[in-house]
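Journal club prep — side note

Before the paper discussion, L.F. wants everyone to see what a predicted structure for a comparable chain looks like in token form. Sequence:
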Amino acid sequence: MTLLWQRLRRDWLQLTLWIVGTMGLALAGLSGAASTYGSEQERTALLATVMANPVILLFRGLPSGPDEHAFIVFLLMPFLVMMAAFMSSFLAVRHTRGDEEAGRLELVSATTAGRALPTVATIVHGLLANVVLGVLVAVAFLGGGAPPEGSLLAGFTAACGGLAFLGVALFAAQLMRTSRGANSLAVWVLVVTFFIAGIGNALGTPSDDLTHMESSWLTWLSPFGWAENTRAFDENLWWPALLCLAAFVVLAGAALALQTARDLDASIIPERRGRAAARPALSSPTALVTRLATGSTIGWMAGAFFAGALSTSLGSVVNEMGSDNPAVAEMLKALSAEADLEQAVVVVFFTMVGLLAACAGVQTVARARQEEAHGTAEPVLASPVQRVRWLADFVVVGFVAIVLTCMAAFVGAWAGAAGKDNGSDLTSDAFVAAWGQVIAASVFLVLTALIFTLAPRWTIPLGWTLVTAAIVFGLFGPLLGLPEWVTNLSPFSVAPVPSNGDVDLRGMWWLVLAIGVGAAASLAFMRRRELASAG
């Protein structure tokens, strides 16, 4: 009980942000969908459009009819599960492999708690967090006038999805030697299973009236697919959510068995042995930071290339869809504020690229906190390297990661536009959207650096929370009916975009000012503060 209380005290603010944010997404979806797709005719038309172009299902749930609340679940369920999954993954790694790296687990294990009890406390902690999240999601639907059974099922499904990824992260923490590796493995499993569910839905069989989709077998390989197949407010199937619970039980049990069997500070997958002597390319602190960020940057670039290719290759299809279905046209115009549909598609997809670029930047600066907490920053700073130079290296490398991510998206857009009659115009639009998202993503880079200097222990949770909130406001704000001023709080919403052959600068100068002030302030504060240990 003492261990559990310690974890709750340590995480109360982070969990509050995740749980309230997930509930807020459900509430916003209820009000936004009611105003944007108020009639059953509009919802039926949009579902028919989805069946005609299954690629949309890569980023949405499983269509389960035109009922208002079933339609909201179609729009939101994958993202409710995703937020629960991120919350659970970070929680699991933080209190298992993270505590082990920091030396806290060794101290606890030396007491009467033993080896297994800290992991049991983490499992109970994650279980309680997801129960609260599920209850509040159900309350959000009930408060919006949704039927009780569907509301309870929606909340139960979101909680079960989070628990499935709690199990994934607990198991990853046993496999990998570092918390960085465990978090990376858990996040990659999350991303891959998200797209497996989307591809499985896209390969499914639509109903004759084009309002339902029967997912393919591929969807059943993913916790997201299990969650979507509960079909809340339509068939109300509870048993697919139980598959998420079964995965949690199996993975958590396996993690607990491995924790008690392996040596402390060891891992199932051993670390790769390093060289006896560093290469000449690692002769500077900048080169060291570059080496640390290379793997993750390549991963973000790969995702950005895919999004960029879709942004131009799908333009003509969506243009045809928009002419047949005004609801699609209005949706894209609301998301991008562009009149031309093909241009709107480019802007929407590059907003997603901006998210990936922001993640690349935030993750790079977060490594500075990890290096500091793990004690590996101290030997570097004991050399002639100054604190300001050390942090500046992470900021510069993070900016390069942002630029490379957006460049990869532009290359993908160029490849997708090759051979099209208006390929040069689409490529030009993609270039403008790419550098606009470089500016937007850089805001999160300097904000994370500023948090690192002022409140180092909040660097990782608060940095990722800001990105999550911004993408919800920026990408889903118009669809959810949020006020314009709320949507414009997201840098993604006010970044420069192409507009009828010209460039709409929108809030570019404000973003540039924020970047300059944030970068200067973070470096100035870094000059004055001492190293902060893990805590």
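L.F.'s comment for the group: The first helix runs from residue 2 to 36. Keep this in mind when we get to the figures.
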